[in-house]
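Q: I'm a student working through a structural biology exercise. My instructor gave each of us a protein and asked us to get a predicted structure, then write a short paragraph describing it. Mine is Dirigent protein. I'm not confident about reading structure output yet, so if you can add a plain explanation after the tokens, that would really help. Here is the sequence I was given:
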Amino acid sequence: MRIFGKISSLALFSALSFANPINDVDLDARAVPASAAATLPFNINYAFTARLTLGPPPASALRNPIPLAGGSGTANGILLPSPILTGTVTGPALNATITSGFAIPAVYNTTAGTIQIPATNAYGVTDDGVELYIVQSGVGPQLGQTTRIQMSIGGGAKYARLRDGFILTALTPDADHIHITVTAYLIENSQA
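A: Happy to help. First, here is the predicted structure for Dirigent protein. I'll explain a few features afterward.
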């Protein structure tokens, strides 16, 4: 029995556009032969939405940010840790409360603009009392980041798909940069 709202893999694949960094040619569903798109080997299901509240970075991190070296060895980025004060997770695959954690984005200034490599570690408990630990990492501009979640969670078979699955997320900060919305999708190989 599937507990997730199923999204048509083909419809989602058709809506995505992939950039080829070598020659900047757009690769999208129009470039994929119909026979290949029709046999996409993945099921993509909405899993949950998390809503996080961040606290301010430590004063010392604002005064003396941790520098990150760029390709030439010179500092062109910083780490900017912020505590996760609280959060809620709701959806067909998981309902939980986030009790603590840290969001630690690496922020780089590039010739194309500012890019962030978000990293989040969060702790919480499900609505049925199972503790969980989440590690999230990804890349993207401040608005519209794409990340992956890896989850350590007990609960036996009930949470096995989240524990063992590939969870792809869209990370969207509110304008206040205090509240973050994370929309998560479970991607599974339909041939497994």
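A: Here are two points you could use in your paragraph. The longest strand covers residues 42-54. Residues 45-189 form a domain with the Porin fold (CATH 2.40.160.20). It's a good idea to check both against the output above yourself.
Q: Great, thank you!
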